[in-house]
Amino acid sequence: MSLQLYYFGTPNGHKVTIALEEMGLAYQLHMIDILRGQQTSPEFLAISPNGRIPALVDDRPEGRVVVFESAAILQYLGRLSGLFYPGDEPGRVAVDSWLFWQMSGLGPMLGQVNWFARAARKPDRDPAETSLALHRFRKESARLFAVLEQQLQGRDYICGAYSLADMACWPWVDKYHANAGDLAHYPAIASWRARIAERPAVQRALRVGEGLIQHDASDLATVFRH
Ligand SMILES: N[C@@H](CCC(=O)N[C@@H](CS)C(=O)NCC(=O)O)C(=O)O
Description:
Layout lengths: L2 E5 L3 H13 L4 E4 L10 H4 L9 E6 L2 E6 L1 H12 L7 H32 L6 H25 L12 H13 L10 H11 L2 H8 L9 H7 L3
Parallel strand pairs: 1-2
Antiparallel strand pairs: 1-3, 3-4
Protein backbone atom coordinates (compact mmCIF):
# COMPACT_ATOMS: atom_id res chain seq x y z
CA MET A 1 0.00 0.00 0.00
CA SER A 2 1.57 3.27 -1.00
CA LEU A 3 -0.11 5.75 1.39
CA GLN A 4 1.18 5.66 4.97
CA LEU A 5 -0.56 7.90 7.49
CA TYR A 6 1.16 8.94 10.75
CA TYR A 7 -1.71 9.75 13.00
CA PHE A 8 -3.28 10.39 16.39
CA GLY A 9 -7.01 10.95 16.97
CA THR A 10 -7.13 14.75 17.28
CA PRO A 11 -8.86 17.29 14.99
CA ASN A 12 -5.71 17.68 12.87
CA GLY A 13 -5.51 13.90 12.52
CA HIS A 14 -9.23 13.61 11.79
CA LYS A 15 -9.00 16.05 8.88
CA VAL A 16 -6.82 13.57 7.05
CA THR A 17 -8.77 10.42 7.89
CA ILE A 18 -11.92 12.24 6.72
CA ALA A 19 -10.25 13.07 3.39
CA LEU A 20 -8.90 9.53 2.93
CA GLU A 21 -12.25 7.94 3.77
CA GLU A 22 -14.22 10.39 1.59
CA MET A 23 -11.87 9.81 -1.34
CA GLY A 24 -11.92 6.02 -0.90
CA LEU A 25 -8.12 5.86 -0.83
CA ALA A 26 -6.45 2.86 0.82
CA TYR A 27 -3.85 3.68 3.46
CA GLN A 28 -1.78 2.11 6.17
CA LEU A 29 -2.15 3.60 9.63
CA HIS A 30 0.80 4.33 11.93
CA MET A 31 -0.33 5.50 15.34
CA ILE A 32 1.92 8.17 16.84
CA ASP A 33 1.10 8.36 20.52
CA ILE A 34 1.54 12.07 21.24
CA LEU A 35 0.56 11.58 24.86
CA ARG A 36 3.66 9.44 25.31
CA GLY A 37 6.03 11.57 23.26
CA GLN A 38 6.35 9.43 20.12
CA GLN A 39 6.21 12.62 18.02
CA THR A 40 9.75 13.42 19.22
CA SER A 41 11.34 10.12 18.12
CA PRO A 42 14.10 10.45 15.48
CA GLU A 43 12.15 8.12 13.15
CA PHE A 44 9.07 10.35 13.22
CA LEU A 45 11.06 13.60 13.03
CA ALA A 46 12.65 12.30 9.82
CA ILE A 47 9.13 12.37 8.33
CA SER A 48 7.63 15.30 10.21
CA PRO A 49 10.44 17.70 11.17
CA ASN A 50 8.06 19.89 13.19
CA GLY A 51 7.32 16.93 15.51
CA ARG A 52 3.55 17.13 15.08
CA ILE A 53 0.96 14.76 13.64
CA PRO A 54 -0.37 14.25 11.00
CA ALA A 55 2.16 13.29 8.35
CA LEU A 56 1.80 11.26 5.17
CA VAL A 57 4.23 9.24 3.06
CA ASP A 58 3.39 8.13 -0.46
CA ASP A 59 5.80 5.69 -2.11
CA ARG A 60 5.27 6.41 -5.77
CA PRO A 61 7.05 4.74 -8.69
CA GLU A 62 8.79 8.05 -9.49
CA GLY A 63 9.88 8.65 -5.89
CA ARG A 64 8.80 9.02 -2.29
CA VAL A 65 6.51 11.92 -1.36
CA VAL A 66 6.64 13.04 2.28
CA VAL A 67 4.09 15.61 3.50
CA PHE A 68 3.55 17.18 6.90
CA GLU A 69 1.10 19.97 7.93
CA SER A 70 -2.50 18.83 7.65
CA ALA A 71 -3.58 21.32 4.98
CA ALA A 72 -0.61 20.41 2.77
CA ILE A 73 -1.69 16.77 3.16
CA LEU A 74 -5.28 17.64 2.21
CA GLN A 75 -4.11 19.53 -0.88
CA TYR A 76 -1.88 16.60 -1.86
CA LEU A 77 -4.76 14.13 -1.49
CA GLY A 78 -7.06 16.49 -3.39
CA ARG A 79 -4.62 16.64 -6.31
CA LEU A 80 -4.02 12.89 -6.13
CA SER A 81 -7.70 11.94 -6.19
CA GLY A 82 -9.10 14.86 -8.16
CA LEU A 83 -11.85 15.03 -5.53
CA PHE A 84 -13.12 17.79 -3.19
CA TYR A 85 -10.55 20.24 -4.63
CA PRO A 86 -11.88 22.12 -7.68
CA GLY A 87 -9.84 21.98 -10.87
CA ASP A 88 -10.70 25.53 -11.94
CA GLU A 89 -8.53 28.32 -10.57
CA PRO A 90 -11.28 30.43 -8.89
CA GLY A 91 -12.72 27.35 -7.20
CA ARG A 92 -9.33 26.06 -6.06
CA VAL A 93 -8.24 29.44 -4.72
CA ALA A 94 -11.46 29.71 -2.70
CA VAL A 95 -10.79 26.32 -1.08
CA ASP A 96 -7.16 27.29 -0.42
CA SER A 97 -8.24 30.55 1.23
CA TRP A 98 -10.46 28.71 3.72
CA LEU A 99 -7.80 26.08 4.30
CA PHE A 100 -5.31 28.79 5.26
CA TRP A 101 -7.98 30.48 7.36
CA GLN A 102 -8.47 27.28 9.32
CA MET A 103 -4.74 26.64 9.72
CA SER A 104 -3.79 30.16 10.80
CA GLY A 105 -6.93 31.14 12.72
CA LEU A 106 -9.65 28.70 13.65
CA GLY A 107 -7.44 25.77 14.76
CA PRO A 108 -4.83 27.76 16.69
CA MET A 109 -7.39 29.99 18.45
CA LEU A 110 -9.66 27.14 19.58
CA GLY A 111 -6.52 25.22 20.60
CA GLN A 112 -5.21 28.12 22.70
CA VAL A 113 -8.53 28.34 24.53
CA ASN A 114 -8.10 24.66 25.46
CA TRP A 115 -4.57 25.17 26.70
CA PHE A 116 -5.30 28.22 28.81
CA ALA A 117 -8.51 26.75 30.21
CA ARG A 118 -6.49 23.80 31.47
CA ALA A 119 -3.75 26.08 32.77
CA ALA A 120 -6.34 28.18 34.61
CA ARG A 121 -7.36 25.13 36.64
CA LYS A 122 -3.83 24.65 37.99
CA PRO A 123 -3.26 26.07 41.46
CA ASP A 124 0.27 27.33 40.68
CA ARG A 125 -0.83 29.59 37.78
CA ASP A 126 -1.34 33.31 38.05
CA PRO A 127 -5.10 33.80 37.41
CA ALA A 128 -4.51 37.21 35.79
CA GLU A 129 -2.24 35.62 33.19
CA THR A 130 -4.71 32.93 32.23
CA SER A 131 -7.82 35.09 32.29
CA LEU A 132 -6.33 37.71 29.95
CA ALA A 133 -5.21 34.99 27.54
CA LEU A 134 -8.58 33.22 27.73
CA HIS A 135 -10.40 36.48 27.10
CA ARG A 136 -8.28 37.18 23.99
CA PHE A 137 -8.49 33.69 22.48
CA ARG A 138 -12.21 33.21 23.23
CA LYS A 139 -12.98 36.59 21.68
CA GLU A 140 -10.99 35.80 18.56
CA SER A 141 -12.61 32.32 18.35
CA ALA A 142 -16.05 33.97 18.51
CA ARG A 143 -15.03 36.44 15.80
CA LEU A 144 -13.90 33.57 13.56
CA PHE A 145 -17.17 31.72 14.18
CA ALA A 146 -19.05 34.85 13.09
CA VAL A 147 -16.98 34.88 9.88
CA LEU A 148 -17.81 31.22 9.22
CA GLU A 149 -21.48 31.81 10.08
CA GLN A 150 -21.58 34.57 7.47
CA GLN A 151 -19.86 32.41 4.85
CA LEU A 152 -22.42 29.63 5.40
CA GLN A 153 -25.39 31.92 4.72
CA GLY A 154 -27.14 30.42 1.68
CA ARG A 155 -24.50 27.67 1.35
CA ASP A 156 -24.60 24.07 2.53
CA TYR A 157 -20.79 23.91 2.60
CA ILE A 158 -18.06 26.51 3.01
CA CYS A 159 -17.23 26.89 -0.68
CA GLY A 160 -20.62 25.83 -2.03
CA ALA A 161 -19.83 22.18 -2.77
CA TYR A 162 -18.38 19.91 -0.06
CA SER A 163 -14.59 20.34 -0.19
CA LEU A 164 -11.26 20.10 1.61
CA ALA A 165 -12.21 23.37 3.35
CA ASP A 166 -15.07 21.62 5.20
CA MET A 167 -12.82 18.67 6.05
CA ALA A 168 -10.28 21.04 7.63
CA CYS A 169 -12.74 23.14 9.63
CA TRP A 170 -15.28 20.54 10.69
CA PRO A 171 -13.24 18.50 13.21
CA TRP A 172 -12.29 21.67 15.10
CA VAL A 173 -15.82 23.05 15.13
CA ASP A 174 -17.29 19.67 16.00
CA LYS A 175 -15.08 19.11 19.02
CA TYR A 176 -14.31 22.59 20.30
CA HIS A 177 -17.26 24.85 19.35
CA ALA A 178 -17.86 25.62 23.03
CA ASN A 179 -14.54 27.53 23.03
CA ALA A 180 -16.22 30.14 20.80
CA GLY A 181 -19.40 30.42 22.85
CA ASP A 182 -22.86 28.93 22.51
CA LEU A 183 -23.46 27.20 19.15
CA ALA A 184 -27.08 28.40 19.34
CA HIS A 185 -25.72 31.82 18.29
CA TYR A 186 -24.46 30.27 15.05
CA PRO A 187 -27.41 28.45 13.42
CA ALA A 188 -25.78 28.02 10.00
CA ILE A 189 -22.68 26.48 11.61
CA ALA A 190 -24.87 24.21 13.73
CA SER A 191 -26.70 22.89 10.63
CA TRP A 192 -23.43 22.50 8.69
CA ARG A 193 -21.91 20.62 11.61
CA ALA A 194 -24.88 18.22 11.76
CA ARG A 195 -24.93 17.77 7.95
CA ILE A 196 -21.29 16.68 7.86
CA ALA A 197 -21.61 14.50 10.97
CA GLU A 198 -24.15 12.38 9.06
CA ARG A 199 -21.70 11.46 6.31
CA PRO A 200 -20.71 7.77 6.57
CA ALA A 201 -17.09 8.53 5.57
CA VAL A 202 -16.83 11.07 8.39
CA GLN A 203 -18.24 8.57 10.87
CA ARG A 204 -15.69 5.96 9.71
CA ALA A 205 -12.89 8.53 9.88
CA LEU A 206 -13.61 9.37 13.52
CA ARG A 207 -13.33 5.69 14.46
CA VAL A 208 -9.93 5.15 12.83
CA GLY A 209 -7.41 3.85 15.34
CA GLU A 210 -10.10 3.34 17.98
CA GLY A 211 -8.91 1.08 20.79
CA LEU A 212 -5.35 0.80 19.45
CA ILE A 213 -3.87 2.87 22.27
CA GLN A 214 -4.95 2.93 25.92
CA HIS A 215 -4.26 5.94 28.14
CA ASP A 216 -4.74 6.92 31.71
CA ALA A 217 -4.81 10.26 33.53
CA SER A 218 -1.03 10.30 34.01
CA ASP A 219 -0.49 10.41 30.21
CA LEU A 220 -2.71 13.49 29.98
CA ALA A 221 -0.84 15.08 32.85
CA THR A 222 2.41 14.55 30.92
CA VAL A 223 1.32 16.27 27.73
CA PHE A 224 -0.18 19.26 29.52
CA ARG A 225 2.66 19.64 32.02
CA HIS A 226 4.11 22.83 30.43
N1 LIG B 1 -0.30 23.00 11.90
C1 LIG B 1 -0.17 21.61 12.19
C2 LIG B 1 -0.52 21.37 13.64
C3 LIG B 1 -0.29 19.92 14.01
C4 LIG B 1 -0.47 19.71 15.51
O1 LIG B 1 -0.45 20.64 16.33
N2 LIG B 1 -0.64 18.43 15.89
C5 LIG B 1 -0.81 18.12 17.29
C6 LIG B 1 -2.00 17.21 17.48
S1 LIG B 1 -3.48 17.99 16.97
C7 LIG B 1 0.43 17.40 17.79
O2 LIG B 1 1.05 16.64 17.08
N3 LIG B 1 0.79 17.65 19.06
C8 LIG B 1 1.92 17.06 19.66
C9 LIG B 1 2.62 17.98 20.63
O3 LIG B 1 2.06 19.02 20.96
O4 LIG B 1 3.75 17.65 21.03
C10 LIG B 1 -1.07 20.79 11.26
O5 LIG B 1 -2.16 21.28 10.98
O6 LIG B 1 -0.68 19.69 10.83
